[in-house]
Amino acid sequence: MATAQVETPFGTLGVAASARGVVEVSLTGAVLDDDTPGADSPEAAAIAQEATAQFAEYFAGQRREFDLPLDCPLFGEDTFRARALMALREVGYGQAVTYGELAAMAGSPRAARAAGTACSTNPLAIIIPCHRVLPAGGGVGSFGASLGSYAGGCEMKRWLLSIEGRQD
Q: Residue 119 catalytic?
């Protein structure tokens, strides 16, 4: 497993990659560490390096989509969590959905709380944009409406939404 870090306005972002793709993105900087001999292959290192370059572009406002291979076992599961996170990949740059809308997109319209749990356990932060999920009636406007929870904190969520042009 190759690891890399990216400095952001909110601290260090950690990236872990295998030879097949990005495995984890951590808002706290700490990622999986696999010291198995040969785990840090040149292919994994190249993917981790490309991920750091794309994150730097994103944080500079120069990238709207990530073009990275992903190696997430979660995508092979038939669970609500997997369906919710896969559906979340369809929420575009500058867009937002509510937890209830995400639940409906994942096939369970009454599972808004479960959608929140899926977001809180997202292994690929920002690439799978859980920052684009807001509580019903939430927003990032000047009235201080709740943005909901976010692993990087509300200020980071507000900032990510604002660089994407989301100002409602």
A: no
